[in-house]
């Protein structure tokens, strides 16, 4: 069985993790990825986060690709290669990429999909300004996130270059999405993708919409999740509370029923922080394994805390074959981030040697792809006509289907009156407010362009409606724990019997098999188990949970999987089951930790705001108070090159301390990081963030203000690119909504065409379309099977 993208040619003109991961996803999907390098080769070929003699991460990211070395006189070869390709992935870090303009490639080769990956996008006031993954986290609001860290210390950014990995996943998904449109009319697309915007989507939780709709930020101070990652008697353990019920169960489990207060207006986090010390003291007395067994019995999300050394030995990942050996170098690497039944992904393959395929490509008959012969269709949405049944809730699943909806798919979001989408319930709106369940900014931001149908599928009548919905859908996406679908009798065989060419996407936290399959999983537990938490925080305390990336990362990986599965269906007519476990997606973007340990024996460690890609790199307090009146304003500075160091010295006025010759190289600056930090901290402390940014950015130094997440609309670059669109709503005020991290040459004029639906708003129109009569629909309403207000269900009526 061939992989879905067999015969699809991608020219890789990128360097760095983002482009490499994007083209890895395409290569694993079966594409022929030709990596074009200069004679020195991609710097990733020698990179190691631990400073070891590198190459292992490159071997993982470049597996199955071909390498062509481009000499100075070879521009004709590059042109022939691009003319014969279907897509190009471009980033300015590549020496070869600097010789061609991505806009010009799109103009000259109208069949091509050209995906350009840059820090801020290729147009706008910040285009071309220096940035690193670290400074982008600061600009995005991801450095403060939704409360990560503690108020007595500097905020902490998420470790492991997660922003670049997320960007790569988005780049692959957008390339695949517009391939779907190119197959329709032959016309390519120019995809201008912004790393900053990818980080906004992946590292923050719709803070702008929340602030604009409710008039208050999600959080005003940094507080760690409690318990989060905690010290047990014999090691670290992760425990989490994502709902009020889970907090009450944790109180009971720890012997503190008196902490349960069902009338309080405090959030779960606020309640937990009140009792943090007593709770941590109790945890410190418990063996980690016993604590996890107890938590599982209480249905409290839990996991061990993964890192590069131990995650490969965890029983669940061993049982699932979550890791494989690199076929050439033998180190351990994650398996694919999703699994298919009915279709195939390409097996892991060796990375190419530098220029290994140069002669082969030079001698090949590279036939140019034909230019489109007809005008592009007026419909610029790639997925018009695609019908998706969205049986997901909270963030991970809805973020996958939301992207499909923004790109044209017809999405039916399935809820029930007894169990609405969980994001309707987390905004802290009192039940005394009229239609309180319609006022959640999180639900509104995640579910535009969707229809809402409520069905109590625990009733026989509800299951009949559900079966009709499935039969009318091209794609079904669900993110229940596996036992729910099992109890409904809706496994892949049952769904395929209803629609023979269905694409069924299952997004459980820990997968469909393995000892943890039925464990409840929220983003933070996924982050803890996979190793994403391990690199976040300070070395003198347990890790902080990123508490954000686990969900949207799962969503964008599931999106890639859906698009590959649809391509398989297009060419074969066959159904596909996609298992897009949240944890498998997380293991892939945490791959560097496992690779470093298995290849070099190096266990990567958290180090506050320092990191392996730049020195100095840190957050420094600036002079002004923050918007809450606190001495809590910060800037991020990261020096990646010796030239940037010299630019920093000059901007500081070439002080005597900076003239030490040892500081002229990265190794010397890293060795003297404490000294450099002290001097930079003193310089920043007497200046405002705006002054610091003006002085350093203009000199060519990567720098950023650490933004409060709800202030993203103040960034001129995001305004220029219209990343936020103002959307009305029948209940809520008009507010800005984030879109996708791209601008397009020939894309839709707007991504948000309809506001998020009211609960059950489309029951009648959708059920009528399924063939139900008005009388049948009225019976469903009377029996509580469908409805428009929470708290009613067919089961309650049956019980009476």
Description:
With 800 residues, the protein is an alpha/beta fold. Among the domains are: 387-586 and 748-799, 3-Layer(aba) Sandwich (Rossmann fold); 615-701, formyl-coa transferase, domain 3. It is 36% helix and 13% strand. A hairpin with a 6-residue loop joins strand 10 (323-325) and strand 11 (332-334). Helix 6 (162-185) packs across helix 7. It starts with 8 loop residues before the first strand and ends with a helix. Residues 795-800 have low confidence and may be disordered. InterPro entries: CoA-transferase_III_domain, CoA-Trfase_fam_III, CoA-Trfase_III_dom3_sf, CoA-Trfase_III_dom_1_sf. This is Crotonobetainyl-CoA:carnitine CoA-transferase CaiB-like acyl-CoA transferase. One of its GO terms (molecular function) is CoA-transferase activity.
